[in-house]
User: What shape does this take?
Amino acid sequence: MTRPRIVVDPAVRWGRAILDGTSTATVDVAGMIAGGETVATVCGEYDVTRHQVLLACWHQAINEGWDHWRSWAFEVHPVLASGSPAQVDALPDPPARVEAPR
Assistant: This one.
């Protein structure tokens, strides 16, 4: 199995970052996680792997400025970039979005 990748293709989803081999935008996947869905639910909803979900969340944190995931993204980057599936499965999920106190 090849390592999942993120691609930008102007002909797919208006040039948004997508998971390679799909038309699934990283912002859609990460948005579900940020909204409180579990990684398993998102995997089933979009028919993608855990590795792809974590990669989409990593992309949003690093490239799109989702600061609430930035420290998580730096922690998981080495494994997402070169880890085996077993190592990826052991990674923590992105943290739940913390609402600001009112």
The chain has one domain: 6-89. The chain has a mean pLDDT of 88. The domain at 6-89 is CATH 1.10.10 (Arc Repressor Mutant, subunit A).
